[in-house]
Amino acid sequence: MHEQLAIGEAARASGVKVPTIRYYEQIGLLPSPPRSEGNRRLYGEGDIRRLAFIRHARELGFEIEAIRTLVSLQDDPDQPCAAADALAKQHLETVEQRIRSLTALKGELEAMVEGCRHGRIDECRVIEVLADHGQCRHAHH
Amino acid sequence: MHEQLAIGEAARASGVKVPTIRYYEQIGLLPSPPRSEGNRRLYGEGDIRRLAFIRHARELGFEIEAIRTLVSLQDDPDQPCAAADALAKQHLETVEQRIRSLTALKGELEAMVEGCRHGRIDECRVIEVLADHGQCRHAHH
DNA sequence: CTACATCCTCTAGCGGCTAGAGGAGCAAGC
DNA sequence: GCTTGCTCCTCTAGCCGCTAGAGGATGTAG
Question: Which domain range does residue B114 map to?
Answer without folding.
Answer: 82-135
